[in-house]
Amino acid sequence: MKDQQYPRALELLREMDLLRRTWKLAIPNTGINKSEFFTLYTLRCPNGQALSWGEDCSQEPAPMTLSTLAKAMKQSMPAVSQRITKLEELGYVRREPDQRDRRTVWIHLTSAGNELLQTTGSEMLGKLERVLHRLDTQDGVNAQLLIQAFHCLALAVQEEFSQGKP
Q1: What separation, in Å, do the N-terminal and C-terminal C-alpha atoms of the chain show?
Q2: What whole-number distance in Å separates Cα of residue 126 and Cα of residue 77?
Q3: pLDDT digit string (tens) for 43-83?
Q4: φ, ψ of residue 87 in degrees (nearest 5)
Q5: pTM above the 0.85 mark?
Q6: How buried is residue 109: exposed, middle or buried, by Cβ count under 10 Å (0-12/13-18/19+)?
Q7: At what angle do helices 66-73 and 34-44 cross, to 10 degrees?
Q8: Please, which contacts does 91-94 make with residues 24 or more away whose CB atoms are closer than 8 Å?
Q9: For the segment 118-146, what is each residue's pLDDT rounded down to a tens digit?
Q10: Which DSSP string corresponds to the chain?
């Protein structure tokens, strides 16, 4: 049987699928998935800094162009554009043409998007911190090494499967 030739690869695939499915529990009842959440978060915190959940978020963050957002997320423009379309339909972002250059479109995080980040984001990130703490203290896993391993895995899978595609 062919799948017995690749037991570790199948085990990795199975665990990656399990992790993908459990992510649906992380952002329940919001109508968005983790990629869409990360898009909103990047609009709020483009440099990847941690959002202070208690901060006054009445001030709207600076808008971004699609290309800047895709670059900040290290993702393709078509993938990010598709997400922005859905988030716009849900009222979490809005597109606004540049007054001076009609080719440029600015993407704004709306107050509804910001509110979603404040409520759901705080809860989700708090739970993830507790998971990391539990791994550090109970399961004998170094959470920082696990994060680094995920990063290395993502880069290796990207390199192997992209085969020269940007």
Answers
A1: 35
A2: 30
A3: 988 766 555 544 544 456 789 999 999 999 989 999 999 99
A4: -65, -30
A5: no
A6: buried
A7: 110
A8: 92/32, 92/40, 92/116, 93/40, 93/43
A9: 888 778 888 888 888 888 887 678 888 98
A10: -GGGG-HHHHHHHHHHHHHHHHHHHHSTTSS--HHHHHHHHHHH-TT-PPP-TTS---SPPPPEEHHHHHHHHTS-HHHHHHHHHHHHHTTSEEEEE-SS-TT-EEEEE-HHHHHHIIIIIHHHHHHHHHHHHHHHHTS---HHHHHHHHHHHHHHHHHHHHTT--
Length of the chain equals 166
Residue 46 near residue 72, CB atoms below 8 Å: yes
Please tell me the number of Cα atoms within 13 Å of 121 on its side-chain side. Answer: 22
Structure tokens at 38: 């990360």
The token pair at 32 is 């968005």
Pairing state between β 105-109 and 93-97: antiparallel
Q: Mark residue 85 as left, alpha or beta (left: phi above 0; alpha: psi -120 to 50; beta: remaining).
A: alpha
What whole-number distance in Å separates Cα of residue 66 and Cα of residue 107?
7
Q: CA distances (Å), 120 to each of 30, 57, 94, in order?
A: 8, 14, 20
